[in-house]
Design goal:
- The structure is a single chain.
- This protein is of the alpha+beta class and 276 residues long.
- The chain folds into two domains: 159 residues, Alkaline Phosphatase, subunit A, CATH 3.40.720; 80 residues, Arylsulfatase, C-terminal domain (2-Layer Sandwich), CATH 3.30.1120.170.
- A five-stranded antiparallel β-sheet has the order 5-6-7-8-9, with helices on one face. A two-stranded antiparallel sheet has the order 1-2.
- A hairpin with a 4-residue loop joins strand 8 and strand 9.
């Protein structure tokens, strides 16, 4: 499968020296440090995708010897283990970046750190209070985010407050590498350019943009259009335009997935009319 997606090489458990298992596999520190010589051996330019496994649900345990923080009153709970796991990953990432710098790779490497889904904790008033938001559908939905940190050699610190989704990652990274992705068949946009106000769409048709949060729900919770600044319910008509965009995006995604149209997209002419 990997070669069909364009990967030239893949590494699995048997390709690494034995080490302590934390979470779903080899601990993050050993995994990242063992990847450094593999990256050093590659011929530039190249792209590498590394998946760490120590920080993953269900967070049933975390080794005592690696616990550096006081997480009370969450000791011996999944959330407490999550905090320990995140701190462990932070330290492992720091050592990884230091190793890349020693080997001369960091000075000409774009480093991206992100996640592919939320932590998966259930809704509870106690956890909501600890995280600093209310225990209701709106607040929990707004909290369902993943980190995205991009380090560019010589770049200045900048924070983007515009809501973006995972589909925006590839066009944004290509822009950082000097490639204009506007003519390529991506569903997302370059968040560092003039991305506009397109909604970030979920698979169920819910969406969020700079002004609204639209929740498409069932009979028990209903469908809501919220003003993001005031966190108030507003008439559904205010979300009509964004909802039409979201419905089209979900349908396009479904068709690409179900009819295996990824390769067909590469043959689409780059002019705007043909891409509609």
């Amino acid at each position: 499968m990997h070669p069909n997606f364009g990967f030239l090489a893949s590494f699995f458990a048997a390709d690494f020296a034995p080490g302590e298992k934390i979470g779903w596999g080899l601990n993050d520190r050993d995994f990242l440090l063992q990847m450094v010589p593999k990256l050093r051996a590659e011929q530039a330019p190249f792209a590498a995708w590394l998946i760490t496994q120590s920080l993953h649900y269900p967070f049933e345990a975390f080794p005592d010897r690696h616990q550096r923080l006081d997480v009370s009153p969450w000791d011996q709970t999944p959330f407490g283990n999550y905090i320990h796991g995140m701190h462990y990953f932070d330290r492992a990432l720091g050592e990884f970046l230091a190793a890349l710098e020693r080997d001369g790779l960091l000075a000409h490497t774009v480093v991206v750190v992100t996640g592919d889904h939320s932590a998966g904790f259930p809704w509870t008033p106690e956890l909501a209070h600890t995280l600093g938001f209310g225990n209701d559908l709106l607040q929990w939905t707004l909290a369902e985010r993943v980190p995205l940190v991009i380090r560019v050699p010589g770049g200045q610190a900048e924070r983007i407050d515009l809501p973006i989704g995972q589909v925006d990652l590839a066009p944004t990274l290509l822009a950082l590498l000097g490639v204009d992705a506007s003519a390529l068949p991506y569903a997302g946009r370059n968040a560092l350019g003039t991305p506009g106000t397109e909604p970030v769409v979920r698979r169920d048709g819910s969406w969020v943009d700079a002004r609204y949060l639209y929740l498409l729900r069932g009979r028990t919770t209903g469908t809501h259009c919220y003003d993001r600044e005031r966190l108030d319910d507003v008439p559904l008509a205010e979300c009509a335009e964004g909802s039409a965009f979201a419905a089209r995006a979900v349908e396009m995604s479904r068709r690409v997935r179900e009819f295996d149209l990824q390769r067909r997209l590469l043959t689409v002419p780059p002019d705007g009319a043909a891409r509609q």
